[in-house]
Amino acid sequence: MLKIENLNVSYGPIHALKGVHMEVNEGEIVTLIGSNGAGKSTTLSAITGLVKAQTGSISFLGKNITNIPPYKIVEQGISISPEGREVFPGLTVHENLRLGAYSRKDKGEINAAYDRVYELFPRLKERIGQTAGTLSGGEQQMLAIGRALMSQPKLLLLDEPSMGLAPNLVLMIFDLIESINKQGTTILLIEQNANMALSVADRAYVLETGNIVIEGKASDLARDERVKNAYLGGKGAAQKAQQ
After folding, report:
1. What is the phi-psi region of residue 216: left when phi exceeds 0, alpha when psi lies from -120 to 50, beta otherwise?
2. Alpha carbon 164 to its chain's center
3. Which end of the chain has fewer CB atoms < 10 Å from its terminal CB, N or C?
């Protein structure tokens, strides 16, 4: 479905992505894990057209989408729930969701998208007329994911969906991620909570300083000593925490 080949991205003198190769197959949950500054969000920004690729290619459903405008990426069937949620605080829940469907014209399809989101997130339906800025962090995260789903994407990009959430809300968000996937939406997940990410994903990539250093089945990476030490609470993770 999504294929990234030899992707290079720089911010001035900083070489953020260095020849990244990745694939996401239809129906999968694929996770990209790594430390802060590894290049995870840059990867999503390149996919969505928010930053330009210097070299390499990004294809989606067999079509080259490298460096095309972000609104055309959405029209191809890709949407993103961004890091930090980025909801519109002065708009209501319903208005935020409507913005997610800006590329859709069919009123019946838009209403069906609302129904799907409110079924997945009953709490949002309870707060349909409430402004987004008054929602809790967990509710704002639901809204951000719901807004991304309003375009009925074939591929959903999730950037740090558990960031800043209480443990019980983290579990709920990951249950919802699995539900969304079972409904037929392919997911590329960026997540610092590597334990949770690997528990729901089919396959995983580890990104370090702009390079893919490990890839494979998520269950295999969860047992890999290098991953355990660096990201799953092993000795390496403890050393990083002390630095």
Report:
1. left
2. 16
3. C
